């Protein structure tokens, strides 16, 4: 619910503002306002940026030096600034075509503001708008958390409350979870263990998600949970199509902008009653767990497609799963001759000896011998459907136990 760059057009103090470049970046979120003025080195003013700031300059240290202004714009873009407002007057009289082209190429909104506009009024009104948006966002987060994690019954009409915050959750809705793959592993690889660095990664991750969703005209509620974001989305066909396009772009952008970071996505079933969003969230998380069990990252998985895993994950008593696995595959689970891998590959290839042998780099006769050994140890017939099903379920359970 943060204020976007586009929203500044609504402010009374900025009625005379003029967008000259970077229209593609108007949906960026504004975290704060920053007046960057340095007399000796104008570029020093941007080194403290944290990302998301709208920067205002009068150009007192820049004047007619186009090269400095170009470097300033590059620096703001590198720091993920939300936009730049130039106070046109005695120091910077106009914005050159070269500067406009650079801002357009970086999708950095670039504005000009007449000198007579009082920056103190602009700063005060913009700051108030940002603070108000954060208050509303906190209220929204509380509302959404109550839907997903609260133990009490929802009070009043939840759809009407969502509409109050500007979100349409009428009709069938579902939960989508975007989860950072191996976040702990990523932090260890980058030698990051301080809270500031970890928090910065999460904030950048959230901002990328939010910006791309808004780019695809998806105004949807978002809530944070650990190293993932939870999205409420309508099940209407057009909304689903835009969500999938957004997710694909999010995955691509994160890899490029966050040093190869990947995310997996889980999508729960849709329900008309918002009280069922808690169930949809559970399903979305199970969909991600299913992909993890298969050793996959960077996936998009819908709960309706996870098959037997949905049933197995619903068994909360882990000893039931352990006993099933031991009773079914115990005799070959601790061997050194990879019988479990052979069995799994054989079943995955529909008991085709030739294809399985090629995949495992085994001679056909060697594979036949090992299959016969497996059948003897397990007292089963791998040409019998019931026996194959029993073994297959045990293999699924093994993946769940490992994770």
Put the structure in a nutshell.
This protein has 14 helices and 10 strands. With 403 residues, the chain is α/β, with parallel strands linked by helices. A hairpin with a 2-residue loop joins β7 (222-225) and β8.
Tell me what you see in this structure.
The chain is α/β, with parallel strands linked by helices. It folds into 3 domains: 5-126, HprK N-terminal domain-like (Udp-n-acetylmuramoylalanyl-d-glutamate--2,6- Diaminopimelate Ligase, Chain: A, domain 1); 153-176 and 203-312, Reverse transcriptase/Diguanylate cyclase domain (Alpha-Beta Plaits, 2-Layer Sandwich), CATH 3.30.70; 317-402, Arc Repressor Mutant, subunit A (Orthogonal Bundle), CATH 1.10.10. Helices cover 49% and strands 13% of the residues. The chain contains 14 helices and 10 strands. The chain has helices spanning 66-78, 97-105, 119-149, 158-164, 183-189, 195-215, 237-257, 277-293, 308-313, 318-333, 339-348, 353-360, 364-378, 385-402; strands at residues 18-21, 32-35, 53-57, 83-88, 110-114, 173-180, 222-225, 228-234, 263-267, 300-302. It has a 5-stranded mixed β-sheet, with helices on both faces. Strand 7 (222-225) and strand 8 form a beta hairpin. The longest helix is centred in the first third of the chain and has 31 residues, at 119-149. It is elongated, with a radius of gyration of 28 Å. The mean pLDDT is 89.
